[in-house]
Amino acid sequence: MRVITGTARGRRLGELKGLETRPTTGKVKEGVFSALQFDVPDARVLDLFAGTGQMGIEALSRGAKSCTFVDRRADAAKLVRDNLAVCGFTDRARVVCGDAMGYLASLREKYDLVFLDPPYADDTLERAVAHIARFDILAPHGIMAAECPADKPLPALQAPYRVHREYRYGKIKVTVYRRDGEETEA
Questions:
Q1: Is residue 2 included in any domain, yes or no?
Q2: How confident is the model at residue 26 (pLDDT cuts 50, 70, 90)?
Q3: Where are the beta strands (DSSP E) in the chain?
Q4: For residue 169, is it within any domain?
Q5: How far are the Cα atoms of 78, 156, 178 from residue 161, in angstroms, in the given order?
Q6: What count of other Cβ atoms lies within 10 Å of the Cβ of residue 26?
Q7: How far apart are CA 37 and CA 9, in angstroms?
């Protein structure tokens, strides 16, 4: 697993052992960043369910201002720190070892871009999407990219959130939600 492009292009990232973590495939990562390429520079990013941290690290490599990585596993949090050090991004990153839902409930800041790739086996993704909308953690015009099995329906959200687009990569689907801005009509 390598960083695709940007200042850390080609850097090899460490991976977690075992089957508990399912890294985003290179094809999916490339597709997501192709779709979001103009939204990444200077973005404040949240990589929830970070695993290896590859999505947030790719964003930092492409010019994101900062990234917060959250994972409940101590070995994953350590690996994210190691991967950040390899890429030279420790000064623009924060790693939180803890429960994702608890983290969302305690947030007092807003993000421009949120990556969601939790375990597929339960309803964690649906709950995370609903929490993000309920706590309104996306900045105006912010984006949430949610990865799941292609046949899994994800919730429609109330304004100012909306499904912008869905991308399919074989058995994987990425749903991109956008938050509308704060514009008012004159």
A1: no
A2: confident
A3: 44-48, 66-71, 93-97, 111-116, 138-149, 161-169, 172-179
A4: yes
A5: 33, 8, 6
A6: 12
A7: 15
* Distance in angstroms (rounded) separating the CA atoms of residues 57 and 20: 21
Q: How many domains does the chain have?
A: 1
Whichever domain contains 156, its CATH number is 3.40.50.150
Tell whether 184 is covered by a domain: no
Rounded Cα distance, 118 and 182, in Å: 30
Is 14 part of any domain? no
The pTM is what? Answer: 0.93
Q: Is the pLDDT of residue 170 over 60?
A: yes
Contact 172, 150 (CB under 8 A): yes
| DSSP state letters, 1-34 | -B--SSTTTTPBPP--SSSS--PPPHHHHHHHHH
CA distance 168 to 2: 22
The answer to whether residues 55 and 115 touch, using CB atoms and an 8 Å cutoff, is: yes
